[in-house]
Amino acid sequence: MNTFRSKLPNHFDLPKRIDRLGELAYNLWWTWQPEAARIFGRLDYDLWESLAITDPVPARNWRVRLNQAADEEEYRRYTTASF
Which of 12, 39, 68, 78 is the most exposed place for a label (fewest CB within 10 A)? Predict the structure, then answer.
């Protein structure tokens, strides 16, 4: 029997400044909060659209863009305000 998991998988290697994206990726709250969904779309809009906006977990593979986003003051401000 499967048990309810209250801890997130620890396979994300996100830049410290945006490490809460891992938490958000596994929280369905973003699916009904347009501002939260835009957090992922702002990383790489074309990739996000190609995923059919169904699974942000592949964001962990966007290494170059994640590192750039971690250094962008505007992106960090947007992420903090949205989540």
Answer: 68
Rg (C-alpha) for the chain, rounded Å, is 13
20 in helix, strand or coil?
Answer: helix
> Which positions ≥6 away from 30 have C-beta within 8 Å?
24, 36, 37, 39, 40, 56, 83
**pLDDT in single tens digits along all 83 residues of the chain:** 455 555 656 666 778 888 888 888 888 888 888 888 888 888 888 877 777 656 666 555 577 788 888 899 998 888 888 77
Q: What's the token pair of residue 53? A: 């906006």
Whether the Cβ atoms of residue 30 and residue 39 lie closer than 8 Å to each other: yes
Axis-axis angle for helices 73-82, 63-71 (nearest 10): 90
